[in-house]
Every structure is written in structure tokens, then in C-alpha cells.
Amino acid sequence: MNLLEGKKVAETIKEELKLKVDKIKNTSHRTPHLKAVLVGNNGASLTYVNNKITACKKVGIRSTLTQFESDITENSLLEEIKKINEDNDIDGYIVQLPLPKHIDEQKVINEISPQKDVDGFHPSNFGKMALGMPTFIPATPLGIIELLDRYKIDTSSKQCVVLGRSHIVGRPISILMSQKGKNSTVTVAHSKTTNLQELTKQADIIISALGIPEFIKDDMVKEGVVVIDVGITRVTDKTKLKGYSLKGDVDFEAVSKKASYITPVPGGVGPMTIVMLLYNTIRAWELNQKSNA
Ligand code: NAP
């Protein structure tokens, strides 16, 4: 078994991006700027946002956080989004999901300027991604592709089973894996799939984005499978200072004995997601430079 060490790869990419940002700083009066918008005080969301801000600092990207109370109205939030769209000093921004129940997430995503949509969630960017056109690709799927590439994993003509069909992970990674370049034959499974074990047992590559801790057991996979575990769930753990530990969708202990390659949780897909957001931010800076030239 070989570990797909996202954490290590992400550190290498950060060094590469830092060199790029250093060059930008030497030649331009403006540093790339990422804004994070956070609504409410969800603990996990705050952790994710802080991790993104820390990573920005490491590569020299300027980052700011704008936080709103959880009872902000949908209209007020949309107005704030418009202001960010018009602020030339901000190259890219993310609206940390999930949003409170009274706010329509899709409405908010639709309002984000596609040029600043470094999460790649806007329908116009998602559409371009599906068509294989240059655009912002959502950071988690982009991170998975980068991880596979850096480990030179052959995906061509392989059977790839994607578990989950969310707009941020399952759906986009299934599209990317089936496109020219990756050339996998992709099956997308979801909660209404009935013959899951039959599918996963035939898979050369499993990409799991369910959010169900240790759902995938060793009797569900074949020898030599490549496993990408996207799932991150906080599970109560009294032995930990924080009171919880992070679990992936895969029973790592058992499945790793059969896998040829497998991502750990934590330290696999998570760090890759963050670093690809930084990559997208630098691209947004480049776009911003061009449109202001
Ligand atoms: P989500 O929107 O909740 O989607 C979960 C998907 O799993 C849905 O498509 C659902 O099917 C499917 N599903 C649920 N139960 C199933 C079952 N028994 N069998 C087959 N499919 C089932 O989740 P998400 O936002 O994609 O995130 C998934 C996980 O990845 C979470 O743990 C999240 O924290 C993690 N995540 C990690 C990163 C990272 O950077 N590592 C980034 C994003 C997300 P239906 O569509 O039928 O409901």
C-alpha cells in the first residue's frame, strides 16, 4: 500500500505558489487578495476558514475575513456580495458553506462574480468546467486530480466509482475523471443506488464523498484499488483534547491492506483542497490584472 500524502504534496505546491507570489510582489504594486465570507459561528466552518487564511499567509497571499451574524437577511447578504464584486482590490472570494437555513445558497452563489468565484461554484464556471473550457475548477476536485497527477496514477480506461453527487465534490469530480485527459469510465453512486457493493468491488478507483464515517469496508473493494477518501466527519472522541477526531468515509485500517494507493484522513484530500484554492486565487489575480489593463 502506498499513501497518497496530500499534506506533503500540498506543502510542495505551496512552495511553488510562494515563488509565484514573490515574483508578483516584485513586479506589481498589488498582492493577490482572497476574501472569505462567513455567516454565523459554525465551529467547523470557522476552522476551515482559518485554515484557508493561514495557508494564504504562508504563500504571501493577502487574506481578509468578513463575518456576518447568522441572522443576516438573504437580501442584505446579497447586497454585501454585490459590494465585494465591485471591489477591485479583491481578486477572489469564497462564501463558506453551509449558510443558515433561511438563506438560499444557490441564490448567493449565482450572485458571485464568475471572475472572482475561486470556489468554481457559479453556474457559468461549473458549465465551463463541464465543457472542458478554462475556468475555476472547485478546489476539492481540482486537488484530487492534482494528487493523482503528482503520484502519476494511471486513470485511463480505468473503472472509477464516485460515491456522492454533491455540486462541490461528487458531481464535478465525476465529470473531470470522465473527460479527455483522465479518461476513466465513471459510475456515480448516491443514496438511491441499490447495488453499491457490486459497483465498488469492480472499481479500479474509488472516490468517496459521502460524509459517513468508515462506510467503505474491505469486503467492498478489490485488491489493488486506488482509494480517494474525501469524507471528513467529526466523531466524538473523549481521548482527544478537542473531544472529537476526524474520520473519513473509508475504514482505513482494513481497506489500506487491499489498496495500492490510499489517502489518509486527515492529511489527504483536505490539504489539497486548501492549496488549490490558493492556486485559483492567483489565477483570479491574473484575470483581474488583465481586465484592469
Ligand atoms: P453532501 O452534499 O452531503 O453529499 C453526500 C452525498 O452522499 C450525496 O450525494 C448523497 O446522496 C450521498 N450518500 C449519502 N448516503 C449514501 C449512501 N448510503 N450510499 C451512497 N451515497 C450516499 O456532501 P459533500 O458536501 O459532497 O461532502 C461529502 C463529505 O466530504 C463530507 O464528509 C464533507 O465534510 C467532506 N468534504 C471534504 C472536503 C475536503 O477538502 N476533504 C471538501 C468538501 C467536502 P443523495 O444525493 O442521494 O442525497
Account of the 3D structure:
The chain is an alpha/beta fold and 293 residues long. It folds into two domains: 28-114, Rossmann fold; 139-270, NAD(P)-binding Rossmann-like Domain (Rossmann fold, 3-Layer(aba) Sandwich). 42% of the residues lie in helices and 16% in strands. The strands form three sheets. It has a six-stranded parallel sheet with strand order 1-11-8-7-5-6, with helices on both faces. The longest helix is centred in the last third of the chain and has 24 residues, at 269-292. It is globular. The mean pLDDT is 97. The structure holds NADP nicotinamide-adenine-dinucleotide phosphate. Residues 140, 163-166, 168-170, 189-193, 196, 209-212, 230-233, 269-270, 273 line the site of NADP nicotinamide-adenine-dinucleotide phosphate. NADP nicotinamide-adenine-dinucleotide phosphate binds at residues 140, 163-166, 168-170, 189-193, 196, 209-212, 230-233, 269-270, 273.
Rg over CA atoms, rounded to whole Å, is 19 Å
User: What is the total number of structural domains?
Assistant: 2
Which architecture of the largest domain per CATH? 3-Layer(aba) Sandwich
Bound molecules: NADP nicotinamide-adenine-dinucleotide phosphate
Q: Biggest β-sheet: count, sense, barrel?
A: 6 strands, parallel
User: In CATH, what is the homologous superfamily of the largest domain?
Assistant: NAD(P)-binding Rossmann-like Domain
Spatially, the strands of the biggest sheet line up as: 1-11-8-7-5-6
Secondary-structure content class:
alpha/beta
Q: Please count the beta strands (DSSP E, at least 2 residues each).
A: 11
Question: Mean pLDDT across all residues, rounded?
Answer: 97
Quote the distance from N terminus to C terminus. 50 Å
Name of the top-level CATH class of the largest domain: Alpha Beta
- Low-pLDDT segments: none
User: Could you say what the CATH topology of the largest domain is called?
Assistant: Rossmann fold
